[in-house]
């Protein structure tokens, strides 16, 4: 090669990236198979230019400038070159990417006076002598190299190349341009190497001593075993330990190294213990728990979206929107899997009142995916160790609920239902923190159970949560989950569920045949309306089970067929307990139908108001919460404003405003039941307006909505449940906030919308116009 270019630096030359540092004094063979590397060296040959070898193809990166002495073409498109290093260099700028071309210049070292170099070289020689004594493979010729070479930088490069330093340290030394600093750093690295070798030698000595001790112990054990055999003594634990070892070896290919080491360690400890000791019992319990973890057992990840739809439709009547959301969730998950992408969807959380089928939906999902289902009840969970597991130092320690769930499922990828996640409490530690780790895809692949003392991979587990009230779920945990709301059932939906699922299931549980018992449609509707008061069907199932039990007695007494009708229903059940009463058809002053949401569905609450001689005070009864008390005061103030502005006419005339002459008493019946919530404002305002204007309120009108001081009607929650309650009570017209009408009406069942006149309102004037009898 023509080396004239070496004098022309800085210059644009090809760059070749290498895994290891090449030092300037080296002549080494380099094998290449990448297309871009072969193009780079060919360009260097064609242009008679130098070649720059470096570990990073970036600006300001240091490397070695050199030349290609020889090129040999090898089979399969590979190339071998013989490279000679000339000088350290540095990339000033990248000019091209294919092949990588860069402006490269020589690195001029900062040399120091020989007087300063000499003591550093003497120190270096001392440490090299020490290193060569500790490490027989370290070259001893370096002392001669130091004595015979006047270039300190050359000395550093030669010694550094033989030290086998980590790449980061080698590069740190390589790029240093201050000769004094290079020598100091090299001495420092050699000292580290010396300390490392000393430590290794000490450890090796200790290991040898331990091996000798272990051999001695093994020999003594063998002798003890022979003595026991001679005396006719047997150890039952030995057979069990042998079984543990065999089972562990079978599971080894499926488990992580930390799990294998921990279980093997405990088996080895058990083999050295007296079988009757308390510690042996504790250790044996641990081994049996640990070996029950189904390391090798995974359910097949097969998914058919049509099968999921069919299963959900077969197991559940109605619930159109929740079922759609479930299918969409798993459809997106399957699509990501087929395309080799990671699915980052949040954990599903079914939210709704008790008995609406939240856990049942999870069960249907597990059946469709052909996976085992485990339910972990979190209600009232106080101790974080119940989830994480107890450390084995505690008496009665055992794995946490998560680990036990996987063991009980006998699969590493089951469906785990975290039931009642909204009812977790804090007492010892923070269970929420553990659940955050469990539900986080970035962390749950290494979930550490404190009892097992090794990591469990929860990344394949499908977690599904259930909750009644999402507002009580801690915000960070709520952020990890996708809420799917499962609302109340309409009477017609309950009727269909009872006919299709509950009655056949309870007949089977009570060993009754279809020919032996029947429940008429009229009787079933009566049960739904008068004997249950719930959003779901759990209590309805209990009532049907009660009928089945009584029917079973009648069959045993000789009856061939039991028929439950509206007439004989009282023979099977006591007097009606619940039911939303139908509205009073008589219009009254100061009595308004309000709509309320309860944990078991909607309800119709009458709000009553009367006025009596006084000084304009407001009295509230009915065990109202702070929000409802505020609503009452806002409503009273608003009606005062309407009277002052003559938007509400009053019959009584006097100099003093009428509201100063009377006290107002507002009462919400069923005073023993606490009531609160921002949805009774317009109801209270209508009742107050009725007593002051002395106009009756339409008895077939119900309403829900909050009110502001300026008279605007604000949106509310629980619209579906409230409208169902109005439908049951045979209300004709319902007033709801305009915003709820625009966004929430799609969730309401068609039979309810068709049976009610739903009127959206924006202002209190509209409410009074619809509610008051003219």
Automatic annotation (TrEMBL):
The keyword Transcription does not apply. Belongs to the peptidase S16 family. ATP-dependent serine protease that mediates the selective degradation of mutant and abnormal proteins as well as certain short-lived regulatory proteins. Required for cellular homeostasis and for survival from DNA damage and developmental changes induced by stress. Degrades polypeptides processively to yield small peptide fragments that are 5 to 10 amino acids long. Binds to DNA in a double-stranded, site-specific manner. The keyword Disulfide bond does not apply. It is found in: Cytoplasm. Induction: By heat shock. Residues 197-247 form a coiled coil. The active site is at 679, 722. Its main location: cytoplasm. Residues 586-774 form the Lon proteolytic domain. Gene3D superfamilies: 1.10.8.60, 1.20.5.5270, 1.20.58.1480, 3.30.230.10, LON domain-like, P-loop containing nucleotide triphosphate hydrolases. This is Lon protease. It is an enzyme of class 3 (hydrolase). ATP binds at residues 352-359. Residues 10-194 form the Lon N-terminal domain. InterPro entries: AAA+_ATPase, ATPase_AAA_core, Lon_bac, Lon_bac/euk-typ, Lon_lid, Lon_proteolytic, Lon_Prtase, Lon_prtase_N.
